[in-house]
Amino acid sequence: MRHPDQDAQLDLDPGAGSGPAALELQDDLEGDTLREECGVFGIYGHPDAAAITALGLHALQHRGQEAAGIVSYDGSRFHSERRLGLVGDTFSRREVIDRLPGNVAVGHVRYSTTGATILRNVQPLFAELNAGGLAVAHNGNLTNGLTLRRELVRHGAMMQSTTDTEVILHLVARSKRSRFIERYIDALREIEGAYALVSLTNKKLVGARDPRGIRPLVLGELDGCPILTSETCALDIIGARFVRDIEPGEVIVFDENGQDIHKPFPPMAPRPCIFEYIYFSRPDSIVHGRSVYEVRKNFGAQLARESHVPVDVVVPVPDSGVPAAVGYSQFSGVPFELGIIRNHYVGRTFIQPTQAIRESGVRMKHSANRAAIEGKRIILIDDSLVRGTTSKKIVRMMRDAGATEVHFRLASPPILYPDYYGIDLPDRGGLLAATHSLEEMREIIGADSLAFLSIDGMYRAMGEPGRDPANPKFSDHCFTGAYPTHLTDQTQTEPQPRQLSLLAEAS
């Protein structure tokens, strides 16, 4: 959940280094990396609810690696465990699961896009309301979250976190409706932007999806118990059955009486996020009926149709570029080789921000497989390009390993506009494609040639005839500037606050 004022916040983030050197290092290592969304999971009526939720969060770990949390309900009390770090750091321990009794639970894996990574921002967020407790796990970002926050604070609300998800709790609390679900829907009517919500009360498990369906949410079933989660891969890991996608604008409720469905919004043309296919979802997930793996292979094949040059081998930038490189290789007939080997065990805290280490940072995460590329013309395939810093170092690494030509291909169009729905992209000035021509980018990266997937080609790879500007089928605003919702916080003339909080916590 990215906040427009994120860079001005003074919260301390104990999960990362601080200061200019650490920020520069992070940019060096992750400058071309799209930072993940968040992942949500909930299950109702199962005696092992917390353990199953932990397994589901393991499958969703790719969507957020900075923190994880689970809230359960045992029929009389809520129980919460929220920790910084990976799911396995906390929730693989039996004593932790034993502290989460009950047959209903919700969980969340987080990448901080609104508010620093401190414990009070870790979800699910919980509040005690007039009708009982409410825990909320949120994937997405509210584009009017800051505006609503200001209004709530002016009227006496006391915010305990710096995440826009807390706004939802306050909106539910202030609704004058008598039934909980009516209060919940009241809150949804006030928020704008992207959200997939899984919420827990002392009687209900509730799922909700924004009217455009920007963020994904699916319904599954295990032993007759309903599950709500971000991706089908979380169902596969626990042996659950996929039932269907939650529809855009749908609110679904599970309680002792069964299932209840509400559709409180006027029908809108769906605009699911195209980046779920390009980067965020796991390759083995099915998103809106499409295999993510097959779509990414199609992106690669379309790239080969549009911009192939004579080369000896196709080399993916691991890991996200692998399916597209497979598709490129299969369509072009050029052999696929693992010319770059990724080290999965280099963590942020391992690397100290000295100049010498900063220069070799990419080599710690990626190393050249000289046997596969020496003396050969290669074409590198990656999913996207943001700042270009990592791409430049990978091209140099390939040349140092003996590649005679290095061509670079991106399996998505140029990223020209920032995102306000939960993807942590820089403002437009920090996007290489928004500030440089194709030839300038090629020179900066140091490649012999550079090409991106066309926007129409991206749509064709998705099975569409092309992009219809009057009715685009996906949220593709990062490429086109056509945002699917209002951007209320971005249009406010009131100055942004200098910070949202000065409280730092031990965690």
Detail the topology: elements first, then pairings.
Elements: H1 19-30, E1 39-44, H2 49-59, E2 67-73, E3 78-84, H3 87-90, H4 94-98, E4 104-110, E5 125-129, E6 132-142, H5 145-154, H6 165-174, H7 180-190, E7 193-201, E8 205-209, E9 218-222, E10 225-229, H8 233-236, E11 241-245, E12 251-255, E13 258-262, H9 275-280, E14 286-287, E15 290-291, H10 292-307, E16 313-316, H11 322-332, E17 340-342, H12 355-359, H13 361-365, E18 366-368, H14 370-373, E19 377-382, H15 389-400, E20 405-410, H16 432-435, H17 438-445, E21 449-452, H18 455-461, H19 477-480, H20 488-491
Parallel strand pairs: 16-19, 19-20, 20-21
Antiparallel strand pairs: 1-4, 1-10, 2-3, 2-4, 5-6, 6-7, 7-8, 8-12, 9-10, 9-11, 12-13, 14-15, 17-18
Describe the structure.
Helices cover 30% and strands 22% of the residues. The protein has 2 domains: 39-270, 4-Layer Sandwich (Glutamine Phosphoribosylpyrophosphate, subunit 1, domain 1); 294-343 and 358-488, 3-Layer(aba) Sandwich (Rossmann fold). Helix 5 (145-154) crosses helix 6 (165-174), helix 6 (165-174) crosses helix 7 and helix 10 (292-307) packs across helix 11 (322-332). The longest helix has 16 residues, at 292-307. Strand 12 and strand 13 form a beta hairpin. The chain contains 20 helices and 21 strands. With 507 residues, it is α+β, with helices and mostly antiparallel strands. The protein starts with 18 loop residues before the first helix and ends in a 16-residue tail after the last helix. Strands 3-2-4-1-10-9-11 form a 7-stranded antiparallel beta sheet. Strands 5-6-7-8-12-13 form a 6-stranded antiparallel beta sheet, covered by helices on one side.
